[in-house]
Amino acid sequence: MVAVVGVLLLADLLLVNASLAEIAGVAIDAAILVAAGAALAAVASLALRRAGDLVRRRGDPIGAAVVLGGMAAVLIAGLRPGANGSSDPAVGWLVSALLIPMGATLFALLFVTTLAASRRSLATRSREATVLVTAAVVVLVLLLPIGGGVGAWLSGAAGWALDVPIGAVFRGMLVGVAILAAVLAARTVFGVGTTDE
Amino acid sequence: MLTGERVPSQAELIAGVVRFVGEILGASSLRFEVGPTLVILGIMLVFLQLVARPVSRWVTSDAGGLAGLGRAMALAAEAGTDAVVSLGTAGVARSTDAHSRLQTLAALPVLGHVARAAARSGVPLRVLTNDPLAGVAAAATLDSAHAITSTLERVGRSRIVMVGEGRQAAGGLVMTTRARPAAAVVAGSLREEATLHLEGLRGSAGSLAAASAEVAQAPALLLSGGGALIGPEAYQVPADLRAEVTERTMVMAANRLIFIAVAVLAIGSALALAGVIAPQDLLLGIGRE
Questions:
Q1: Is B57's pLDDT higher than 70?
Q2: In angstroms, rounded to a whole number, what is the distance separating the alpha carbons of residues B96 and A174?
Q3: Spatial separation of the C-alpha atoms in residues A179 and A149, rounded to whole Å
Q4: Are strands B83-86 and B125-129 parallel, antiparallel or unpaired?
């Protein structure tokens, strides 16, 4: 089934044919419907599970109450009479005033966690991490805001490092990722898999 | 083609199919020019060559430290703890790019590998995901692992955890969870939250292996302190998973034989170019008194 649908979509990509496009459209619509159904089922399952936790006082009742409260707040904001669904200002406020700031708070920890990870990696004498941290320190020095001739030289060296060695490594990895992603996609489309059993 | 009274022959059936395909092709036109179409078909042909043998042949190294899973599961069984597999934060149906979602699909064989090891050891598995479809796929993978290992009675002990929408929710969850799994495996797309995600698991889990094809997050994987599969390796790892040591030994032996053959060819060519030996005399002289 996977292989048939994969070949069908590939043929629709290459050929302009009304019948083929119609069949491919049906396959894509079916996939979207399945995804939407699975999403609704998952949300319902999550709500039931958390409601059960709350009623039976098992697991994490406080967390369950927060999850159910959050779900209820968004549902009421988006589905109340006269609301505009996901584009309603109340939903937008919940996202921009609550969700995004909470996410930003977490991301603010990145600086601390990166330093902690660097320190631990150096303490465990990881070879790759040592090279990485050394390179980071070198780039940090090159990017120091120093004026004059020395500053210009450092700035030029930083640009060269970013454009040549770091850029080469980055592009090489991207090429490798692209090739193996395409291979994996082809294997998935044709239903070819391995088993390590 | 039916003639009215008799069943059509094979030749008539084939002729009908050919006519049908011809009619479809006749009513179609190429979406691209001839050149790009041939390039796409050529690439597909090369990919077919690759997918025909989906097992990587040349790699004998331990992919991301996954060979240590058996020991980690033994420790987990002894300590009575669980193991964690995170499918990253891209999911399958979330609104993100295809490259990220493909990583989730690439992570499923890794999940299957870990799930089989956990099932055999009787270790409960916790799968973290933020996408309902990825959760369904993970549940099917877990069921399959327990069916393969004839441990269906243990499938209820493992669970899929929906960590909530957004990439930061997964990072927040692993940083605040109180559970201490024996092993943690992260396979899938990780973006800005990579360091948070990996640090959270690193702090609680006994061992950590991480795989992500997000090139910009390679430093986070390297600093995580566990096994790391970076960039293309995240897509390659499903082909490198090996349960049997003998398979890796066979690959290693085959690679050595190939290396020896290439070395003999290179040395022989160098000697012939230097005039030390004459290949035709050497070959014709074999068996001669």
A1: no
A2: 18
A3: 44
A4: parallel
| Chain-centroid distance, C-alpha B71 | 22
Angle at which helix A2-14 crosses helix A167-189, to 10 degrees, equals: 120
Any idea how long chain B is? 289
Nearest CB to A118; choose among B25, B44, B223: B223
**A2 or B129: which carries more pLDDT confidence?**
B129
Residue A166 tokens read as 């770091």
A75: closest CA of chain B, how far (Å): 15
Whole-angstrom Cα distance, residue B137 to residue B283? 59
What backbone torsions phi and psi does residue A148 show, to the nearest 5 degrees? 80, -165
Distance from CA of A42 to the nearest CA of B (A): 6
Nearest-CB residue to B54 (from A41, A187, A197): A187
* Predicted model pTM: 0.73
Question: Over 60: is that where the pLDDT of B4 sits?
Answer: no
- CB contact set of B233 (below 8 Å; sequence gap of 6+): B63, B64, B211
How large is the average pLDDT for residues B268-286? 75
Task: Tell me if ipTM is over 0.85.
Answer: no
pLDDT for position A184 = 81
Q: From the centroid of its chain, how far is CA A121? A: 25
Confidence (pLDDT) at B3: 53
Mean pLDDT of B254-262: 78
Cβ-Cβ contacts under 8 Å, A10 against chain B: 44
- Distances, alpha carbon A72 to alpha carbons A77, A79, A91, in Å: 8, 10, 12
Q: Amino acid identity, residue B223?
A: L
What residues of chain A lie within 8 A of the CB of B31, using their CB?
13-16
Secondary structure (DSSP) of A102-149: HHHHHHTTHHHHHHHHHHHHHHTT-HHHHHHHHHHHHHHHHTS---HH
**CA B172 – CA B164 distance, rounded (Å):** 10
Rounded to a whole number of angstroms, the distance from the CA of A143 to the nearest CA of chain B is: 19
Chain A positions touching B196 (Cβ under 8 A) are 106-107, 109-110, 113
- As given in the structure block, the two tokens for residue A20 are 């083929």
Q: Based on the number of CB atoms within 10 Å of its own CB, is B238 exposed (0-12), middle (13-18) or buried (19 or more)?
A: buried
Q: What is the mean pLDDT of chain B?
A: 81
> Please, which pLDDT band fits residue B125 given cuts at 50, 70 and 90?
very high
Closest in B24, B113, B195 to A17, CB measured: B24
